[in-house]
Write a structure and sequence with these properties.
44% of the residues lie in helices and 20% in strands. By secondary structure, the protein is of the alpha/beta class. Strands 6, 7, 10, 11, 12 and 13 form a 6-stranded mixed beta sheet that branches. Strands 2-3-1-4-5 form a 5-stranded parallel beta sheet, sandwiched between helices. The longest helix is centred in the middle third of the chain and has 23 residues.
Length: 353
């Protein structure tokens, strides 16, 4: 049996992840939040976040740090199916479930303003608060030295997988699917006695970038880009025309010849926006800071993309290949103190990407 633990900040999308897994995968759902609301009702208390914190701490102090999730785990075992335990908030709960085997922890986060808008739309009894109260409630649950009390920050750090849910539903679902595939691979490898070789974080995010590239709408350069910070995806982008304008795949290309510093002449499609540019503009649109982030892309960014990358505060760029005319960008990154890494030294042009 596989048990997925879901943790994350308020309004980050835990429920949406659960709904997707139940609808598309063979999982049953058990919620710490739901468990607490039933207990609150028994005690005839107000169904708000203060009551949830008090009851949760009372139960854990009386029965142990992992009491609530142990109860939910026992219920899950009786179903004989894979299970999701939602709203895990203490390190003691994570430690207890890890000991049972087949347990994987997923953390989800998003920008605070986006999350507050979501809980307002959700409109549950515990969400009817102003923004300042919302932030105060969250801060109260972020850190604790007691393994029986809420410590969201540490729970997120202890997670096997991290999801950044600032974008579209499809971007969220793509992340979930990649996680499910890896979990299944790890479980199958364990059953066969094979040591599962987890990809490095660079390999993981580059694979995400290559998956994003499949959404590109110009067959001259199907490239994708992912920008992350603290091992969490902030935003993605792929090659495509500006919003509302025709795609190359539908209308054909608008070509322009360029003469590069190495004397080589290449033809480029000028209808489309580069993947790096689209990712950065998505971040600007949703008010997401890219400061100290890492950008993953297929080839050395062009001069224009390099300037945007530097100006938005990205501190590291990881490319799968070198671009034959990327020397100027490489020098710009060096001068600006932006770390630049390549998966290999193979050099590509837009003609052979």
């Amino acid at each position: 049996m596989i048990v997925l633990g879901i943790t994350g900040t308020l309004g980050a999308g835990k429920g949406t992840i659960v709904d997707y897994l139940i609808r598309n995968e063979d999982y049953t759902h058990f919620s710490v939040r739901g468990f607490l609301l039933k207990e609150i009702k028994k005690r005839k208390m107000e169904p708000n976040r203060d009551s949830m914190v008090k009851v949760a701490n009372d139960l854990r102090a009386k029965h142990g740090a992992s009491y609530i999730v142990e109860q939910l785990y026992d219920q899950a075992v009786k179903t004989g199916k894979n299970a999701i335990v939602e709203s895990i908030r203490t390190t003691g709960e994570i430690e207890a479930l890890r000991q049972k085997g087949g347990f994987f922890m997923i953390a989800v986060d998003a920008d605070a303003r986006i999350r507050y808008q979501r809980i307002q739309q959700r409109g549950s009894e515990t969400d009817n608060v102003d923004y300042d109260t919302f932030i105060a409630n969250e801060n109260r649950e972020m850190d604790s030295d007691d393994p029986a009390k809420q410590n969201l920050m540490k729970c997120i750090e202890l997670s096997d997988f991290a999801i950044e849910n600032n974008g579209t539903f499809q971007q969220l679902f793509d992340q979930i699917e990649r996680i499910v595939v890896e979990i299944n691979e790890r479980v199958n490898a364990d059953k066969q006695g094979i040591q599962f070789m987890r990809p490095s974080w660079d390999e993981y995010f580059m694979e995400v970038a290559n998956t994003v590239a499949k959404r590109a709408t110009c067959d001259r350069g199907r490239s994708g880009c992912v920008i992350v910070r603290d091992k969490r995806i902030l935003v993605t982008g792929y090659v495509g025309s500006p919003v509302g304008l025709p795609h190359c795949d539908d209308e054909g290309h608008l070509f322009k010849k360029l003469i590069h510093e190495d004397g080589r002449v290449t033809t480029h499609c000028v209808r489309t926006v580069h993947a790096e540019q689209n990712a950065i503009t998505q971040a600007a649109r949703y008010g997401i800071s890219l400061d100290k982030g890492t950008l993953y892309c297929r080839m050395t960014p062009c001069r224009t993309c390099a300037m945007l990358i530097i100006n938005c505060g990205i501190s590291r760029v990881v490319c799968e290949y070198r671009y034959h005319a990327g020397a100027e960008s490489e020098q710009m990154f060096s001068d600006a103190g932006v770390e630049l890494d390549f998966f290999n030294d193979e050099t590509l042009s837009y003609e052979n990407q």
